[in-house]
Design brief:
- This protein is of the alpha/beta class.
- The chain is built from 4 helices and 19 strands.
- Strands 2-5-8-13-16-18-19 form a 7-stranded mixed beta sheet, with no helix packed on it.
- Strand 18 and strand 19 form a beta hairpin.
- Helix 2 packs antiparallel against helix 3.
- The longest helix is centred in the N-terminal third of the chain and has 17 residues.
- The chain is globular, with a radius of gyration of 17 Å.
- Belongs to the transferase hexapeptide repeat family.
- Keywords: Acyltransferase, Transferase.
């Protein structure tokens, strides 16, 4: 059996080295598309959608996302968005593994999604020579992620959740709750999905 490529390891959530030629080339291509996206205006919706497609971002074609520039991501092809997603200025998604965003999700400015992680052992971590890994992030439908919130890898956020501004979400969030703080904790339970 052939040894896995670094990209195959990355997508499988295993330790991988991110500076190999394949992944480096893909990040460079993504950065080129992101730079082009970040120079567009609201008067160029088709150009914006074409650049999102070029990045490989999967989205609902009947109700595509509205992403305010500047926006940044690592690869793009690991991002899936439902209908009516809105991202305010300066959102960043380090999509080294799947990032799934539901429908009708709103992001405040400066929201950061961080799937990558590094070994805690500094000898294994080894700076630029060491490996990293990724853990997926899932955000359910009808969520509001407040400005400057950070969501770490391995987190699943249920439907109808509000994440307070500046929160750092380190573990799963149950549906229909409001969370805030660092680390984020439940502040309020909501009544549930409206009819």
């Amino acid at each position: 059996m052939a040894e896995k490529t670094e990209k195959q390891k990355m997508l499988a959530g295993e330790l991988y080295w991110s500076f190999g030629p394949e992944l480096t080339a893909e990040r460079k291509a993504a950065r080129k598309a992101v730079r082009a996206y970040n120079t567009t205006t609201e008067e160029e919706p088709e150009k914006r959608l074409q650049l999102l497609r070029e990045l490989g971002i999967k989205f609902d074609k009947s109700s595509p996302p509205f992403i305010e520039p500047p926006f940044n991501c690592d690869y793009g092809y690991n991002i899936t968005m439902g209908a009516q997603v809105y991202m305010n200025f300066n959102c960043c998604i380090l999509d080294v593994c799947p990032v799934k965003i539901g429908s009708r999700v709103l992001f405040g400015p400066n929201v950061q999604l961080y799937p990558p992680g590094h070994p805690t052992d500094p000898l294994v971590r080894n700076g630029l020579e060491g490996p990293e890994f990724g853990r997926p992030i899932t955000i359910g439908d009808d969520c509001w992620i407040g400005g400057n919130a950070i969501i770490l890898g391995g987190v699943a956020i249920g439907d109808g959740v509000t994440v307070g501004a500046g929160a750092v979400v380190t573990r799963d969030v149950e549906p229909w709750t409001v969370v805030g703080g660092n680390p984020a904790r439940v502040i309020k339970h909501l009544a549930g999905k409206a009819a």
